[in-house]
Amino acid sequence: MTELKPCPFCGGNSEVHVTEAEYWYVICLECGTISGIYSSEDEAMKAWNRRVSE
Questions:
Q1: Helix (H, G, I), strand (E, B) or coil at 42
Q2: Residues 6+ apart with CB under 8 A from 21
Q3: Predicted model pTM
Q4: pLDDT above 90: percentage of residues in the chain
Q5: What are φ and ψ of residue 15, in 5° steps?
Q6: Which residues have CB under 8 Å from 16's CB, separation 6+?
């Protein structure tokens, strides 16, 4: 399983959640930032972990 990177805004811990309708998202446990909604856990995690190259 892929490990989630820290929140891109506050550096806090995050975790994956699933809705009753089987949609997946990631939420920061520190500041409450929420990712988009995705159709799989893998998609949600990949989107959360994506960072703009410097």
A1: helix
A2: none
A3: 0.88
A4: 89
A5: -150, 160
A6: 4, 24, 25, 26, 41, 44, 45
